[in-house]
Design goal:
559 residues; Enzyme I, Chain A, domain 2; TIM Barrel; eight-stranded mixed β-sheet; eight-stranded parallel β-barrel; 16 strands
């Protein structure tokens, strides 16, 4: 038996023969052209054909995996027609007199290197997107056919990496799981695998060899382990794990429509985190009670300039209407730190995580902030809206933001534009300062939502982007849990509710703890709603609350 360790990015156990993805490669010739106009026309024709193909792929993805998967290809359509991309290709053709194939290849390399060098992991992942779009245009220019799987039986598919378009075009009936040499948990392939319910492991490097093809393999998408020619004990253990996962999924499906109530009658709201309007179907499919965190920065990350008030209004309205009266909490723009956008022209900072970001940008660029608030309040007439400000550290920041809200409401009223008077205002508790000041801050807002990723980072002085820190970055640290309890206590004293919207909210090891300290709402990824509901319904806080609170008071740290 050979054991290979990668990173599991989509849960589940896949078993079967290993098959290496057959990718058709375009042969690119480089030459100098005399008729640059004809070469430019060749590119434009290939670009148009690529956009049409991507539209067809979007519809196929929507049918297979929902709107979120379709959005990937709709984004690729925009990238194929991106003005900067197109102008770079044109410069290579008209100024350097390169043929269209070479111009597209060079543009792809230039843009991919630019994205890969960015600090933001989201933008780094776009390097794979521009390569995928360019590969499609090159395939059209050279007449190269798409790759695929030439196997009569289902397989575990191995590849150096898989582009989203390659993933969605594969026959799902033939795929038992994905194993890739590269990739990351935030790559589109990982997202698609999770959406389609296919086990996936990335980052195995060069451990998989061509001679492994055809051999029986087990891939554990939960642990990232790959077993080649597993022994009888390993095979039996993994078969049992797969059966338990299938049984649990069937059980979880029966929880749809059930209440989030503990055995002793304590209830908690379970909401969802989303990143765009296209995520709403996943919220409804998984029976989320509402949206506890709508990351509005998707509008800015997917644009080459500041989105207009109308563009933002349409996006917010779409989500509120789709949620049919369920609560939707939209976080104002959280740009900065690991989410850098060129047209914001933010100054380079040695420590951007502690620099100009989130609400600080909004307060120092009032017209930018006003545009978003106008769009939010206009959209509030179409549903149940809450507005949440990120990265708060002081009372004065909240008061300034609220003052801007009142100004915007007065403007809309004067203009005769409808908005809701019932919009709740909340803040994210992401800094130790906000947690310590939560007694004062609670008097200013309607709710708290704790962003545990940043709260852990700032409390423990650990960069959450630094994988080398390992166990030093510990979200279970008693200092973090004590701050959460302090925030919950101060919220309840002031008569407001407190939720958690960071990744910690879906950590089932802490569900009892959150119920014990009085958390009112947990906002998680849509796929985590039913497992979390199950954990809540299995809990009896009468048995655990006293013990957990005593552990926190005693500074007990569970390793």
């Amino acid at each position: 038996m050979i054991t290979i360790q990668g990173k599991g990015v989509s849960n589940g156990v896949g078993m079967g023969p290993l098959y290496f993805y057959q990718r058709a490669k375009a042969t690119i010739t480089r030459c100098t052209v005399d008729d640059t106009e004809a070469e430019w026309s060749r590119f434009k024709a290939a670009q148009t054909a690529a956009v049409e193909q991507l539209g067809e792929l979007a519809e196929k993805a929507r049918a297979r995996a929902g709107d979120e998967a379709a959005l990937l290809f709709e984004t690729h359509q925009l990238m194929a027609e991106d003005l900067d991309y197109e102008e770079t290709v044109e410069a290579f053709i008209r100024q350097d007199r390169l043929n269209a194939e070479a111009a597209v290849a060079d543009t792809s390399t230039q843009f991919a290197e630019m994205f890969a060098a960015m600090d933001d992991t989201y933008m780094q992942a776009r390097a794979a997107d521009v390569k995928d779009v360019s590969r499609r245009i090159l395939g059209i220019l050279t007449g190269t056919a798409e790759g695929g799987i030439a196997s009569e039986v289902p397989v575990l598919l191995a590849a150096d990496d898989l582009a989203p378009s390659e993933t969605v075009q594969l026959d799902k009936a033939k795929i038992l799981g994905f194993i890739t040499a590269g990739g990351s948990g935030s790559s589109h392939t990982a997202i698609l695998a999770r959406t389609m319910g296919i086990p996936a492991i990335v980052g195995v490097g060069d451990a998989l060899k061509p001679e492994h093809e055809g051999r029986f393999v087990i891939a554990d998408g939960g642990t990232g382990a790959v077993y080649i020619d597993p022994d009888d004990e390993t095979r039996a253990r993994m078969e049992q794990k797969r059966e338990e996962q299938l049984r649990l999924q069937r059980l979880l499906e029966t929880l749809k429509g059930q209440e989030n109530v503990t055995k002793d009658g304590k209830s908690i709201r379970i909401y969802c985190n989303i990143g765009s309007p296209e995520d709403v179907p996943a919220v409804l499919t998984n029976d989320g009670g509402g949206i506890g965190l709508f990351r509005s920065e998707f509008l800015y990350l997917n644009s080459t300039n500041y989105p207009t008030e109308d563009e933002q209004f349409e996006a917010y309205k779409k989500v509120l209407e789709a949620m049919g009266g369920r609560e939707v909490i939209i976080r104002t723009c959280d740009i900065g730190a690991d989410k850098q956008i060129g047209y914001f022209a933010l100054p380079k900072e040695d420590n951007p995580a502690m620099g100009m970001r989130a609400l600080r940008i909004s307060l120092t660029r009032p017209e930018f902030f006003r545009t978003q608030l106008r769009a939010l309040y206009r959209a509030s007439a179409f549903g149940h809206l809450g507005i949440m400000f990120p990265m708060v550290t002081s009372v004065w920041e909240v008061r300034e933001a609220k003052k801007m809200c009142e100004s915007v409401k007065a403007e809309l009223k004067k203009e005769g534009i409808p908005y809701s008077d019932g919009v709740q205002i909340g803040i994210m508790i992401e800094t130790p300062a906000a947690a310590v000041m939560s007694d004062r801050l609670a008097c200013e807002v309607d709710f708290f939502s704790c962003g545990t990723n940043d709260l852990t980072q700032y409390t423990l002085a650990c960069d959450r982007q630094n994988n080398d820190l390992g166990r030093f970055y510990d979200p279970h640290h008693p200092a973090v849990l004590r701050l959460l309890k302090m925030v919950a206590d101060n919220a309840h004293k002031a008569g407001i509710w407190m939720g958690i919207c960071g990744e910690l909210g879906a950590d089932l090891e802490l569900t009892e703890t959150f119920l014990a300290i009085g958390v009112d709402e947990l906002s998680v990824a849509p796929g985590s709603v039913l497992p979390l509901r199950n954990a809540v319904r299995m809990t009896d806080t009468r048995e655990s609350a006293a013990r957990i609170l005593a552990e926190l008071a005693a500074d007990h740290h569970r390793i």
